């Protein structure tokens, strides 16, 4: 496994509309492993492939809840319910935090690394994290949609 370089806001790869994954080959499984290791090393709760310079629709998330580490390949939100506002940060925007309005509950459909279709219903932090990471796949950063921003060390 390897720690990958995290791209920072201003890098054009973070503005890209990412391409779907056609097949999860050995190289992409390695990338998922490296993304998870990079996320844990950076104390993040999620990381999207474009954040490590790869414009593909892959995300890793671990909100340190009972769900544990999840790998979302070609994820699509199929249902949204309610609203919640809360604080977000991003490994690509270090030191900046902001309040973002998100759906309170989402259902997401995705492929796992074996190419099997999976479904997940999420609320709370996991719901927020899924929406934040999926925005990365559309080239959107939370600072573009935050209702307020602040600097913190
Ligand atoms: Zn982010």
For the record, the count of structural domains works out to 1
Q: Name the bound molecules.
A: zinc ion
Gap between N and C termini, in Å? 29 Å
- The count of helical stretches stands at 2
Question: What is the CATH top level name?
Answer: Alpha Beta
| CATH architecture type | Alpha-Beta Complex
Helix and strand sequence = HEEEEEEEHE
What are the segments in which pLDDT stays under 50 over at least 5 consecutive residues?
A: none
Beta-strand residue percentage = 25-35%
Judged by helices, strands and strand pairing, the structural class is alpha+beta
CATH topology value: Peptide Deformylase
Q: What would the average pLDDT be, to the nearest integer?
A: 97
Spatially, the strands of the biggest sheet line up as 1-2-3-6-7
As a whole number of angstroms, the C-alpha radius of gyration is 14 Å
Record field, number of beta strands: 8
Query: Helical residue percent?
Result: 10-25%
Any idea what the CATH superfamily is called?
A: Peptide deformylase
The largest sheet is:
5 strands, antiparallel
Q: What is the molecular shape?
A: globular
Attribute tags:
153 residues, Peptide Deformylase, five-stranded antiparallel beta sheet, three-stranded antiparallel beta sheet, binds zinc ion
Short précis:
The chain is of the alpha+beta class and 153 residues long. The protein has helices at 26-41, 124-137, and strands at 46-48, 58-61, 70-81, 84-88, 96-102, 105-111, 117-123, 148-151.
């Amino acid at each position: 496994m390897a720690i990958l370089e995290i791209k920072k806001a201003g890098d054009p790869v973070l503005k890209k509309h990412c391409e779907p994954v056609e097949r999860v080959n050995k190289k992409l499984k390695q990338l998922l492993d490296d993304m998870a290791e990079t996320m844990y090393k950076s104390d993040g709760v999620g990381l999207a492939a474009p954040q490590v310079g790869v414009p593909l629709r892959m995300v890793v998330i671990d909100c340190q809840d009972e769900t544990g580490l999840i790998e979302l390949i070609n994820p699509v939100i199929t249902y949204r319910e309610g609203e919640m506002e809360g604080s977000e940060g991003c490994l690509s925007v270090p030191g900046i935090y902001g309040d973002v309005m998100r759906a309170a509950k989402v259902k997401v459909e995705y492929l796992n690394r074996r190419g099997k279709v999976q479904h997940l219903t999420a609320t709370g932090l996991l719901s927020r994290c899924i929406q934040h990471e999926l925005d990365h796949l559309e080239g959107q950063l939370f600072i573009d949609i935050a209702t307020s921003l602040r600097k913190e060390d």
